[in-house]
Design goal:
By secondary structure, this protein is an alpha+beta fold. It folds into 2 domains: 244 residues, Zn peptidases (Aminopeptidase, 3-Layer(aba) Sandwich), CATH 3.40.630.10; 94 residues, Peptidase M42, domain 2 (Elongation Factor Tu (Ef-tu), domain 3). Helices cover 29% and strands 25% of the residues. Strands 1-2-12-3-13-16-14-15 form an 8-stranded mixed beta sheet, sandwiched between helices.
């Protein structure tokens, strides 16, 4: 597959931007630049970003494209006498992989400074501590190299309430078509949404298409709850960076593998995706020869559930780009799956009519 350098550049910038839930500002700066060709861009106080393909006057039903712009991160809770930082999670984490991870802490000057998530060194642990099981975040600190609380405040300009993000940087392995980095959940979905809007530009469609980069999904789909009431969609596609299951699942049960295309879920813990829209999408992909996967998920949740139930029962599907090790410091995905997700979304939107949507 030929890789588009423009798209790869957007993916890199939007993935690397720091933006845990509630602190999405830097992500939206990148998104605004990437979508600067669009005629109308709006932002609300939640830090939801609305991308309008053309003038939206309410005369046509709306297709809503959603992708959440936040990532899982942390927030500084307090500064210890040693100069180390206590912190709380901002979204859900697998805590076992946190010790020794490098992070970036925003300070009062708006700078992101390096730190290490630290656990008491094994040399100083009691036997009971060494034999302990689950790691609690309350037992961890972030060490920025300060020697006292005063130095952390005065020299490093640390203050409570500031965000913390993984320091992993985007890398693309062209030979193996693999992308490495943080926050592919759901920045890869954000990039796919923007590219979908670009490919629809200039097409005469029977719908208004509105893209939303929604805030605070990782802490309860909060931004989407606001956005859906503004957009009032007739139908929607929720983009996601979804957990790949191909490195630990029995072969017969793998449903979200890298390089097999987007995962279209039938259900998860939060939603039963609109069955008729779901089947329509799967049949269209088969007709067009598009890469696609389908799944039945035992856990998880997403903005699709909010969109589906906020109004009068909006038909929605979730198009998930497979990502290995989401909600950790380092993730893996592929350009093939990103491109396949864009292709699917474009073909679905081009094929829809108001009459078809009424049948869902």
């Amino acid at each position: 597959m030929k890789v588009c350098e423009r798209q790869l550049g957007i993916i890199q910038k939007i993935v690397d931007a720091p933006g845990p839930s509630g602190f999405e500002d830097e992500v939206l700066k990148v998104a605004r630049e990437a979508a600067s060709w669009m005629p109308r861009i709006e932002e609300d106080a939640m830090r939801n970003l609305f991308l309008y393909r053309k003038e939206h006057d309410g005369s046509k039903p709306v297709v809503m494209l959603d992708a959440h712009s936040d990532e899982v991160g942390f927030v500084v809770h307090s500064i210890k006498p040693s100069g180390c930082l206590r912190f709380v999670p901002d979204g859900g984490w697998s805590t076992s992989g946190l010790p020794s991870s490098k992070v970036l802490v925003r300070n009062a000057l708006g700078e992101y400074i390096p730190g290490i998530i630290a656990l008491k060194p094994v040399h100083f642990m009691t036997q009971a501590e060494r034999a302990g099981g689950n790691i609690e975040i309350s037992s961890l600190v972030i060490d920025i190299g300060a020697t006292s609380r005063q130095e952390a405040i005065e020299k490093f300009h640390i203050r409570i309430g500031e965000p913390v993000v993984p320091s992993a940087k985007f890398e693309y392995d062209e030979k193996n078509d693999l992308m490495f980095g943080k926050a592919f959940d759901c920045r890869i979905g954000c990039a796919a949404l923007i590219e979908t809007l670009r490919r629809l530009d200039g097409l005469d469609l029977p719908f208004d298409v509105v893209g939303v980069l929604s805030a605070q999904e990782e802490v309860g789909e909060r931004g989407c709850k606001v956005a859906v009431n503004k957009v009032k969609p007739a139908i929607a596609i929720a983009f996601e960076g979804c957990p790949a299951d191909d490195t630990f699942t029995e072969p017969y049960a793998i449903q979200t593998a890298l390089k097999k295309g987007p995962m279209i879920r039938h259900l998860d813990r939060s939603i039963i995706c609109s069955p008729r829209f779901q089947r329509y999408t799967l049949d269209l992909a088969a007709e067009k020869g598009l890469a696609i996967q389908e799944s039945v998920r035992e856990g998880g949740g997403n903005n699709g559930a909010v969109i589906q139930t906020a109004l009068d029962g909006t038909p929605v599907i979730v198009a998930g780009v497979p990502v290995r090790y989401i909600h950790t410091m380092n993730c893996i995905t592929s350009y093939f799956d990103y491109e396949a997700t864009v292709q699917l979304a474009v073909e679905v939107i081009k094929s829809l009519t108001p009459e078809i949507v009424k049948g869902f």
